[in-house]
Design brief:
By secondary structure, this protein is α/β, with parallel strands linked by helices. It contains 7 helices and 10 strands. The longest helix is centred in the N-terminal third of the chain and has 11 residues. The protein is globular.
Length: 245
């Protein structure tokens, strides 16, 4: 891990100290056939206003939110708690109204002017592949703290680092590559999956998860904790095997 005293501004080593990793809640909306978008240039909305509000409520319970760099580039998300009432409640409890924003990059291709970096008052953390960490830190400057996440990028070490920074509850919102890394690594505690009532049927469109070896199997299934109807949408809330309560 990068720990040189001559690191450029913004490039940091992992936080010191022993910590418990955050509780990881993976949140996703998908079509019946498992796609999270279509192949068109515009973002497909799989959810509804009622579900967007539910997601905002879940966000407000978390300390940090994570998306992959591909999602930052493609969707240019703000990743903010939108409800003023929820923001006020967080502030009244001594918490920032905004969540710490986290992204992971292998290529280092991140625009410092994207809304991920320019909106919200809480810190922005970028976990970067060792080969691109220095370049990313120079490009982002004071927009974010950049952490050398290893070669290959170590998701367990990243979670331990977030825990050392005080993150107790992490919300992961995609995309498919990030979902796959977390799930195949056995690092997800809870999965909140919203199913939209239609099909995409395009093999070139992005899916909820990519190919991989998953610890969740017929012999080790997830536990279905809750099923909720949200209009024509179905929310399936699973606790993943080995999850902490």
């Amino acid at each position: 891990m990068f720990s040189s005293p001559h690191a450029p501004a913004g490039l940091l080593p992992y936080a010191h100290g022993v910590s418990e990793r955050p509780y990881v809640l993976l949140s996703c909306a998908m079509s019946v056939d498992g796609y999270i978008d279509d192949a068109s240039p515009e973002r497909l909305r799989l959810s509804s206003p009622a579900d967007f509000d539910r997601v905002d409520d879940v966000r407000a319970t978390c300390d940090a939110i994570l998306v992959g760099a591909g999602t930052v580039r493609r969707d240019d998300p703000k990743l903010l708690v939108k409800s003023e009432a929820r923001r006020a409640r967080r502030k009244a409890r001594g918490r920032s109204p905004d969540l710490v924003k986290v992204t992971v990059t292998w290529s280092g291709d991140l625009d410092p002017e994207s809304r991920f970096f320019t909106t919200g008052e809480a810190p922005k953390l970028v976990y970067s592949h060792s080969q691109t960490a220095h370049e990313v830190a120079v490009r982002l400057g004071d927009r974010a703290e950049v952490v050398d996440a290893g070669d290959p990028v170590s998701f367990p070490a990243m979670l331990n680092d977030l825990g050392a920074r005080g993150v107790r509850r992490l919300m992961v919102e995609g995309g498919g590559g990030i979902h796959t890394h977390f799930l195949t690594s056995g690092l997800v505690d809870e999965l909140q999956l919203v199913v939209a009532p239609f099909f995409i049927g395009d093999p070139s469109a992005p899916r909820f998860a990519k190919s991989g070896v998953f610890p969740q199997s017929p012999d080790r299934p997830m536990r279905l904790e809750e099923v909720t109807r949200i209009g024509n949408l179905a929310l399936l809330r699973y606790l993943v095997g080995g999850a902490r309560g």
